[in-house]
Amino acid sequence: MGLTEWASDHLLATVAVSLAFLTLSVVSVLGVAGWLLAAVLGLGGAGTLGSLLPLFVAGLVVGVPLSVVGLVAAAAGLASRASSAVSGTTEVAGIRLGRVASYVERENRYARMVGLADLVENFDTRSAERRADDRTERLKERYVEGEISDHEFERRLQTILDEEGVQREGVSAIDDELHATERN
Questions:
Q1: Which of 90, 116, 143 is the last residue of a domain?
Q2: CA of 53: how far to CAs of 38, 57, 175, in Å?
Q3: Is the separation of the CB atoms in 32 and 108 below 8 Å?
Q4: Most buried by CB count within 10 Å: which residue of 34, 52, 132, 142?
């Protein structure tokens, strides 16, 4: 597991560690700056801060690189989470948009003339076969319920296959199901 995956899986811990090292870095910078200011101005606190100077330097040496790594890891983890959330949302939205466009195109000849489904195809991340299968399933349901005739079913099925650019070779599983339904 890489740093990005770990940071994405443990985002809260990554942010907490980053903030801890960032705090160490800030305290160390303030300690060194306070010592320098006290030494330059000749204040009495320079000796006390001078005894803590090695700790401040160690804090800088350790804190700055680790806070940078921690902040980069937290940013990468956050970006990874955001990317997967957006990707999933985009895929679902694309599928819904594709279904709506297919429905509108089936019901409206002007939408068919414009090629509405082709326009939103970039948003629908499903393959042409998957889109054709989904549309065929809905068509099959209408046929089984008696809403459309055999001839209308065959005509619309061919339209779906043509629109999606899918070629069916031989008898498909859907044809087998339809024939079994007809016999019952």
A1: 90
A2: 12, 6, 83
A3: no
A4: 132
Q: What is the pTM (predicted TM-score) of this model?
A: 0.45
Residue labelled with tokens 């990554």: 14
Q: Are 86 and 102 in contact (CB under 8 A)?
A: no
* pLDDT tens by residue, 102-159: 777 777 777 666 666 655 655 556 677 887 887 788 888 888 888 888 888 888 888 8
Segment 155-174, tens digit of pLDDT: 888 888 887 777 765 445 55
Contact 106, 36 (CB under 8 A): no
Cα–Cα distance measured from residue 6 to residue 16, given in angstroms and rounded to the nearest whole number: 14
* Number of other CB atoms surrounding residue 48 within 10 Å: 11
- Looking at the fold, whether 59 and 133 belong to one and the same domain comes out as no
Cα–Cα dist 179/37, whole Å? 91
Question: What total number of domains does the chain contain?
Answer: 2
Q: Is residue 46 part of a domain?
A: yes
Q: Containing domain of residue 167, as a range?
A: 127-183
